Every structure is written in C-alpha cells, then in structure tokens.
Amino acid sequence: MIPAGFQIIENVLSSRECEELLTQLRDRTLSRSRAGVRELMKCGAVSQLASDPRLIRITQRVFGRPLIPYKATVFEKTGKANWLVAWHQDTALPVEKFIERDGWSAPSRKAGTLFAQAPSSALEKIIALRIHLDDSTETNGPLRVIPGSHRSGILSEEMVREFLVNSRCVECLVRRGGVVAMSPLILHASSKITSDKPRRVLHIEYAESLDVTPGIKLAVS
User: Fold this and answer.
1) What pLDDT score was predicted for residue 9?
2) 183, 126 in Cβ contact below 8 A?
3) Which of 27, 104, 142, 199 has a C-alpha 20 to 30 A away from that of 174?
4) Residue 94's beta-bridge partner residues?
5) Where do the structural domains in the chain lie, given as residue ranges?
6) Domain 6-214, CATH
7) Are 181 and 200 contacting, i.e. CB atoms less than 8 angstroms apart?
8) pLDDT over 80 (residue 75)
C-alpha cells in the first residue's frame, strides 16, 4: 500500500488521449447524472483504458502484482454542476450478490448496481486511480486528502473529527493526463469550483481479485 495513502503520478496520458476520451464520454447513451457518468466499465474506450499497461504498472508498483479493474466513474465538476464533497472514506463496494459476512452490511442499489458496506480487510485490497482529464487547480475544486488516515481502518465520526483537528490537509493539484493513486480508506474531500474551468476525472477502481471475500464477488460496473 502507498505509505501516505495517495500518490500523484504526472504525465501518464497525453493531452490528445484525454481529449479523445472526453469525446467518447459525450455519448448520449451513457447513464449520466448531475455529477457525472457511472458504470463505465461497459464503455469500450474506458474498459480498454482501464487495462492499459501504464495504469496496470501503477497498481503493480503499489501491490507488487497487477490488479484487476472492476469499476469506473467519471466525475464532472463544472460551473453548472458544482458541489462540495464533505470529508469521507469510500467504504461501499459493488457486489454481484450480498451475503452476510463479518464486516459486510447495509446492502443498497445505486443506478441498478448492488453495493454493500465493506470491512477494512476488503478495502485494503483496493486502489483507485483518478485520471485527470483537465488540469486540477486550486480554483476548480481539487481533491483534498489527509495523508496517513488510511492506516486507521474505517473511521468513526469522532475519529474523523480528530484527524481534521490534528492533521494537515493536502490539495492534489494535478496536470491534465496525470493520475492520483489512492486508497479508498484515505480521508478525502473536495470544495466547489470558484472559476470557470471544469474538473473532469475518470475514477477507476482496481482489486487484487474479484473474489474479495469468500462468497462475495465484486460486480464489474
């Protein structure tokens, strides 16, 4: 795992590749919401990129072996779709079916996909790669993280407050084509855009195995 819980890798994709991907994502048949586009592993261009050797090598450097992509989402923060994301961890995983196991709880459906709250033992086997399709700057709602917070497992509300009081926050300023690799357990947030420049990010999640827990298999979405 990444010691700080996140890492910025610049110049992974070219500007042209980012523009070509944005063109593909304008497809009207994709399932869109105000915040972006979900279930993008069904999109050929995204599915192909998720297995690109450049991205797989990043997962291999972190875990010692290549990981498997299973979930992709685009977040589109613009002047017309502008929101604040409070401090949180990403603790829900998409699953093919829900079976009661220690640490697994609260099954629910989102855009047709079944999700469940996962234990830290499963989340520690996950990494997200956030591919920046625009420059991420101080004024277009960049990702903010608290380094090292992932090492404490799933945090209670009180623990979150303690981290916010006693820890420093880092803004992830990344150029177009750069990637932020991050643990789903790291505390993260983002503010609203204060400029007219959009921030569009392709968020791809990878796992050591789709069989994340005996009897529970990750859904590809």
Assistant:
1) 98
2) yes
3) 27
4) 115
5) 6-214
6) 2.60.120.620
7) no
8) yes
